[in-house]
Amino acid sequence: MTAAKPLRADARRNRDALLAKARELFASGCFDLRFDDFAKLAGVGTGTLYRHFPTRAALAEAVYREELTAMCARAGELQATLPAAEALAAFLRGFVNHLHTHLGLARTLATLMATRSDALADGGRELDRAMAGLLAAGVEEGTIRDDVGAGAVMMVLQGICTACDEPGSREDADGAVTLLLDGLRRRPS
Amino acid sequence: MTAAKPLRADARRNRDALLAKARELFASGCFDLRFDDFAKLAGVGTGTLYRHFPTRAALAEAVYREELTAMCARAGELQATLPAAEALAAFLRGFVNHLHTHLGLARTLATLMATRSDALADGGRELDRAMAGLLAAGVEEGTIRDDVGAGAVMMVLQGICTACDEPGSREDADGAVTLLLDGLRRRPS
DNA sequence: CAAGATATGGAGACTATCTCCACTTGTCAA
DNA sequence: TTGACAAGTGGAGATAGTCTCCATATCTTG
């Protein structure tokens, strides 16, 4: 599914150079760089950049794909080793924590979530699935309400991701997670 | 504070034409129109457009300022006529409802909230204040928790606003509000 | 190693944004 | 009214990103 094309050697090299440079730049806070300049900085031509990553979002997604996958994997681990409600809490708190030390990821996720209908959104869907899994386990366990879907939770996360690079947003993000977790608890109706 | 400059007659006319046309276009779903074309369509020159509204966001804010103010006023009314917790619930449910029939407003709010540090954000701050008021009343009343600030709630609202024009987001938005309201309830600790 | 497939790079077309200023229009005091 | 000054106008063109195109270079495979 992923290995449809055995990229030529030099092509792979260029692609990697692009990714490496992008990662480096994102890590140092440069997000709004002129797109063409990514190419220049990575030592490849503009055309090459556009061939590998048709849009800025595509580049961002590729850069953070691994990281996102790792986070989703973590959701699985938590789910396997903790009671569902705790796993959910641990995941969400870890998520917010991670976002605040990886603003590039936050931006990227915000973009991905806002682009649901697109091909490059499967990164977003991955997170969606992880979330749905955690919730389902909680419902099963009886500690999480069953009348609110994963979409609603994702919507809140989208807000958090979007607001992330606002200075001083950390506290509010934690507050939002608190609300989320308490809101999700099954209510003794 | 608002009446610093008694705009010349023709200037006001142009400004109004611009606003009217923008309102009309927004209402019909055209948000991403070439900015210069607003001018053309409203029958004024590009320069005039830019003088009155330096950015797209400024135009959007002006278009929805009234509406936003009305919403905030409504928060006040609710607060005056209902127990705080109910006022909060009514406001939030009304808010989401309104957003989903006024997508332009949703977009605009999403933008405003993402632009906290700017001059044109006072529209956003207005909402912020209304929210803070509702919460404070609830805390006073003893039905709303006091350990989570208005910022956290606004963050969730931002997510809702951003996701609004996704088809089928209505249900999720309602879910998010449910989570929010239940999460905000003072817990019998 | 030759031939075909694959990939490159960067000049320049294209597009949206925004500025600038010679000119028009409104205002107001006389 | 009218003259003179302030206020506002419009739209051509400067500026700056984005993206395409294709002659050329580089890989790969038989």
Spell out the key features of this protein.
homodimer, 189 residues, mainly alpha, Arc Repressor Mutant, subunit A, Tetracycline Repressor, domain 2, 9 helices, 0% strand, DNA-binding
The largest contact between protein chains, plus residue counts on each side, is: A-B, 36 and 36 residues
Give me the count of strands of chain A: 0
Radius of gyration of chain A: 18 Å
Count of spatially separate domains of chain A: 2
Assign the CATH topology of the largest domain in chain A: Tetracycline Repressor, domain 2
Beta-strand content estimate of chain A = under 5%
Major β-sheet profile of chain A:
none
CATH architecture level-2 label of the largest domain in chain A = Orthogonal Bundle
Question: What's the topology here?
Answer:
The structure is a homodimer of 189-residue chains.
Chain A (H helix, E strand, L loop, with lengths): L8 H19 L7 H8 L3 H7 L3 H26 L2 H18 L1 H11 L8 H20 L8 H14 L5 H16 L5
Helix pairs in contact in A: 1-2, 1-4, 4-5, 4-6, 4-7, 5-7, 5-9, 6-8, 7-8, 8-9
The structure holds a DNA duplex (30 and 30 nucleotides).
Describe this structure in words.
The structure is a homodimer of 189-residue chains. Chain A folds into two domains: 7-53, Arc Repressor Mutant, subunit A (Orthogonal Bundle), CATH 1.10.10; 61-184, Orthogonal Bundle (Tetracycline Repressor, domain 2), CATH 1.10.357.10. Chain A has nine helices and no strands. The first copy, chain A, has helices at residues 9-27, 35-42, 46-52, 56-81, 84-101, 103-113, 122-141, 150-163, 169-184. In chain A, helix 1 (9-27) crosses helix 4 (56-81). The longest helix of chain A has 26 residues, at 56-81. Chain A is elongated and about 60 Å long. The termini of chain A are far apart. The mean pLDDT of chain A is 92. Chain A binds chain B through residues 110, 113-114, 116, 147-149, 151-160, 162-163, 166, 169, 171-176, 178-185, 187, and chain B through 110, 113-114, 116, 147-149, 151-160, 162-163, 166, 169, 171-176, 178-185, 187. The structure holds a DNA duplex (30 and 30 nucleotides).
